[in-house]
Amino acid sequence: MNPAATDHLPSFVAMPGQTDTLFFIMLAFLIAAVLMIGTLYLKLHALPEHLAHRTSKVQYEVVAILALIALFTHNAIFWIAALLLAMIDLPDLTAPLSSMARSLEKLSGRRRPPGPEGQSGVLSYDEQAAAAQPFPWQRKG
């Protein structure tokens, strides 16, 4: 090719038979940009789960499921619901209920010391019936 014919071309245009350096620079930039944007997208999608990590197990699991549904369906309402649920502190309803159950067990007198295998101190219905005094007509001898 005549050098006079290519003098007016910019420096990034490759001559025939030479390596196109601009193509390889742009290819590396494109791959890096796709990886960075993908990482940012996945970190943003995991934001509700990260926020809900300090909450109760049930709340964390619901937030994780909502975020996963949002990831697969590309429906933003699920992600927004997961984010709002992660930001709200739900009250612990099981602690007062278990405290009431323990108090009722103590009041009823149906507790026994835990066994060597770490069994619970609550008597089952069959154990309560076996431990109860039989009626006078059921007594033997």
TrEMBL record:
It comes from the Bacteria. Keywords: Membrane, Transmembrane, Transmembrane helix. Residues 105-125 are annotated as: Disordered. The keyword Transmembrane helix applies. The chain crosses the membrane at residues 22-42, 63-88. This is Uncharacterized protein.
